[in-house]
Amino acid sequence: MQKKVGVLLVNLGTPDNPGVSAVRKYLFQFLNDPRVIDLPWLARAILVNLIIVPFRSFSSSKIYKMLWDDRGSSLLYLGEDLRDELQKKMPDHIDVHLAMRYQSPSMESVLEKMRIKNYDQIIILPLYPQYASSTTGSTLERAMKIMKKWYVIPEVSMVSQYWDHPGFIDAFVERGKQFNIDDYDHVIFSYHGLPVRQVDKVYDDGLPCDEHDCETKITELNKFCYKATCFATTRALVSRLNIPESKYTVAFQSRLDKNWLEPFSDKIVEEQAKKGAKKLLVFSPAFTADCLETTVEIGDEYVEIFEENGGEKLDLVPSLNVHPKWVETLENIVKKRAIA
């Protein structure tokens, strides 16, 4: 008898609609996750529930309205498209599902449907290429908390990261080749930011991230360090795209305060404009689907910053979305892990 396999793709999440109440609900769930804001419970509760959520809900709602289109939130519908395209590549005994870590479709509801299917194996595949506790770690922890309540727990396979998968690199290289990189004065590889304390927690030797050569190489100690894998992702891409070291910068966006990974992407955009750069190209290799951080933050806000400081044109390299090489990469990952 052919064994049945269920695959769960998981992305971060999105409000159900761009209205203030829906955005507030999303921010409440997202920011109260102790892996996202890793402060003691009381400090996190005060910061999130009395300061961030009340004050950011209205401004965030305006930004989400800029993102929303006829199909809704791109993070959700691109995820649905990816699920459907991957399903076409799967044999009959492998089913592909999609959930969001926060909001709908929830991991609880989708995993319950998968439980009822009585799969022999479940593969949890977060759509974050580089491991971070606040994304992949939170997703895998949530899956374990849900499944540990099941009376019957099938074989489970969890994917922690795949930034170095040749297919993932190939897919972003293909995206980059849509642009004539020689036409640009500078290239920015912009990754989502993290508090410095979170990358420091990766290490058990008592030394901070800054003392582990994270910007230059991958080692046994730093292989799960988000900063190290972001720089390694960039090295792999610039090598394939023949971008000289002097022409690119690795930076981090979406910070909440100054104690986050540096340099900050918006500051690099501003600095490049002030140095006389007229054309910038921005990659976002931490995001596999276009979303608020790419479409609005880079595609609108960074364009405005660049032009206000003398720049003329900033182009965003699209995320992988449903690129055929990206679908093929996920197919490869799933089939390699699926039981026979």
TrEMBL record:
GO terms, biological process: heme biosynthetic process
Keywords annotated in UniProt: Cytoplasm, Heme biosynthesis, Iron, Lyase, Metal-binding, Porphyrin biosynthesis
Localization per record: Cytoplasm
Stored Gene3D superfamilies: 3.40.50.1400
Binding residues annotated for Fe(2+), in chain numbering: H192, E293
InterPro entries per the UniProt record, alphabetical: Ferrochelatase (IPR001015), Ferrochelatase_C (IPR033644), Ferrochelatase_N (IPR033659)
Pathway note: Porphyrin-containing compound metabolism; protoheme biosynthesis; protoheme from protoporphyrin-IX: step 1/1
Domain of life of the source: Bacteria
Catalysed transformations (reactions): Fe-coproporphyrin III + 2 H(+) = coproporphyrin III + Fe(2+); heme b + 2 H(+) = protoporphyrin IX + Fe(2+)
EC number(s) reported in the record: 4.98.1.1
Molecular-function annotations in GO: ferrochelatase activity; metal ion binding
One GO CC term, this protein: cytoplasm
HAMAP family from the UniProt entry: Ferrochelatase
Family indicated by similarity: Belongs to the ferrochelatase family.
Role of this protein: Catalyzes the ferrous insertion into protoporphyrin IX.
Name of the protein in its database record: Ferrochelatase
UniProt source species: Salibacter halophilus
